[in-house]
Specification:
This protein has about 100 residues and is α+β, with helices and mostly antiparallel strands. The chain is built from three helices and four strands. Helix content is about 30%, strand content about 30%. β2 and β3 form a beta hairpin.
């Protein structure tokens, strides 16, 4: 069953660019995984250091058991404490409907 993660990040102001560079590297790598469906990164128009990542995968178990342990995520996970002003907030959701303009 598909699963969507809503992940909120509050980047340290002085580390904003480093945060985006690291996150973009992970997004570029993960989009090639077989279980990947989609990802959209949002920026808060009121706070340039607040971000929301909307990420959908085919299977939650595969994400937890396989995807989170991919080597390209190691540097990302190690860097997070120095990049973030607060712990990330992760919500797990089950998609019911998805609409896109054709």
């Amino acid at each position: 069953m598909a699963v969507t993660y809503l992940i909120e990040f509050q980047a340290r102001p002085e580390r904003r660019e480093a945060f985006l560079e690291r996150l973009n590297a992970v997004l570029d790598a993960m989009r090639h995984e077989a279980g990947f469906v989609s990802a959209t990164l949002h920026a808060d128009p009121q706070d340039p250091h607040h971000f929301l990542l909307h990420e959908t995968w085919r299977d939650h178990g595969e994400v937890v058991e396989v995807e989170l342990h991919r080597p390209y995520r190691d540097a990302w996970h190690a860097a997070l404490p120095g990049l973030l002003a607060a712990p990330r907030r992760i919500g797990v959701w089950t998609p019911l409907r998805s609409d896109r303009r054709s």
